[in-house]
Design goal:
One of its GO terms (molecular function) is hydrolase activity. The chain has about 290 residues and is of the alpha/beta class. It has one domain: Alpha/Beta hydrolase fold, catalytic domain (Rossmann fold, 3-Layer(aba) Sandwich). Helix content is about 35%, strand content about 15%. The chain is built from ten helices and ten strands. It has an eight-stranded mixed β-sheet, sandwiched between helices. α4 crosses α5. It starts with a strand and ends in a 7-residue tail after the last helix. The relative contact order is 0.15.
Length: about 290
């Protein structure tokens, strides 16, 4: 089933629901549309699966019903510069579940969509499980990401009419100087993430842990550490380090914690279906008590 659903800001998002309606439902808000040709080749240079959304759905649909959409892509096409707050995003996701007639669901999000999952979990009792990839459930780098998004927004404002690096250019990662790179993107696209992190700057992710009662998993690649240059606030976002430092405490709080090992297992590689599915599928089967055929 496919449906265009009107969100809080009146924009419409295409949402799909596939699989056996009698199965547990998994919400995947980061299911990118497949791309082909030159764009696909460029994504491969960066280690990104150009059919990421499709492969996630295909990998899970035999055991689960999948509610999927590309919320990030939608927000780049329909930015919400002043209203992309955690509360509004959570409301968007609950509107989607209502419109698709899904009462209970598990949630899988990666990076900023993982932190959104945590925000959703403390605002509804409809989650059956929570899976966060590429963002830690405690000691989240909200202040660091605020610095990065602020600097990105400043660049977007300053570079609107200058000939600098454009996100659409086809360039390989090896040729990017991350200390001096300047980014030219739409100011509204960038400002919405400033708004989101601004609303999270006082958020205490330890204080809310007692509200989480369903099975939950957090994971990151062992090399998920990004050192940002001066153009992006001179901060380090050490997802893997934070997760490993707090592993014992998180497990005591009821989380399952995994650090994905392997060559080049950084923020990008650890979000690809090949890395994620082998972790979350058996975890879901175990924690949602899915009965496997003999």
């Amino acid at each position: 089933m496919e449906k265009n659903i009107k969100l809080m800001d009146e924009s419409e998002l295409k949402v799909s629901l596939v699989g056996n309606p009698d199965s547990a439902t998994i919400m995947i808000p980061g299911a990118k549309e497949s791309v082909y040709g030159k764009e696909a080749e460029n994504l491969k240079l960066w280690g990104v699966d150009p059919e990421l959304g499709k492969h996630f759905v295909e990998g899970l649909v035999d055991k689960f019903q999948i509610l999927y959409f590309d919320y990030e892509g939608h927000r780049f096409q329909h930015p919400s510069p002043d209203n992309l707050t955690p509360e509004n995003i959570a409301k968007d996701f609950l509107i989607i579940a209502d419109e698709m007639n899904v009462k209970k669901f598990s949630y899988y999000g990666y990076s900023w969509l993982a932190l959104v999952g945590l925000q959703l979990a403390i605002r509804t009792d409809r989650l059956e499980s929570l899976m966060m990839g590429g963002f830690p459930p405690i000691d989240g780098p909200y202040k660091e990401m605020m610095a990065v998004t602020n600097k990105t927004y400043e660049q977007a404002l300053n570079n609107q009419n200058s000939a600098v690096y454009d996100e659409q250019n086809y360039i390989s990662p090896e040729k990017v100087d991350w200390d001096s790179i300047e980014v030219k993107i739409d100011t509204d696209q960038t400002k919405q993430f400033v708004t989101m992190y601004k609303n999270l700057i006082e958020f205490d992710d330890r204080e809310i842990q007692h509200q989480l009662v369903t099975p939950r998993l957090a994971f990151a690649g062992e090399q998920d550490t990004i050192v940002y240059g001066e153009n992006f606030g001179s901060v380090t976002v050490d997802i893997s380090g934070i997760l490993q430092k707090n592993k014992q405490e998180l497990e005591y709080l009821g989380w399952d914690i995994e650090v994905l090992k392997g060559s080049g297992m950084d923020h990008t590689k650890a979000m690809q279906p090949e890395a994620v599915l082998s972790l979350i599928k058996p975890w879901l089967i175990k924690n949602l008590n899915i009965t496997l055929p003999e």
